[in-house]
């Protein structure tokens, strides 16, 4: 007799992917309501000396509270992971970054800051991601 269960790796991976998609959608909605944002590319080698690149966004949100007579706003700086990037060349990272922003509907024109960490291919004067963007 065969019983169905949700412990198989295929089902677990599918559930994780569905949850990741929902979380990313919520981040994008919040980012779009904030309008302007910064992009952060962080590069760190893993134990096998393979570069691990992450794409993150940083933006500010405000929420207003209305106590009896005063209206105050709570400002929150938010930083969120969006995805891992496989290609660690300056051109490759630029293409992946622009494609990711386009796929999620985030306007590149609303970028107000760029942050790069631990990678000469990101900051390189003539061919790095910073120059290309």
UniProtKB/TrEMBL annotation:
<protein>
    <submittedName>
        <fullName>Uncharacterized protein</fullName>
    </submittedName>
</protein>
């Amino acid at each position: 007799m065969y019983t169905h269960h949700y412990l198989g790796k295929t089902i677990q991976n599918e559930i994780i992917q569905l949850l990741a998609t929902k979380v990313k959608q919520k981040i994008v909605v919040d980012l779009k309501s904030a309008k302007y944002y910064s992009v952060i590319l962080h590069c760190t080698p893993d134990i096998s000396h393979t570069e691990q690149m992450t794409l993150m966004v940083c933006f500010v949100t405000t929420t207003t509270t209305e106590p009896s007579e005063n209206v105050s706003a709570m400002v929150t700086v938010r930083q969120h992971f969006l995805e891992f990037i496989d290609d660690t060349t300056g051109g490759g990272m630029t293409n992946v970054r622009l494609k990711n922003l386009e796929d999620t509907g985030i306007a590149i024109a609303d970028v107000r800051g760029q942050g790069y960490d631990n990678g000469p291919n990101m900051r390189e004067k003539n061919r790095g991601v910073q120059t290309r963007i």
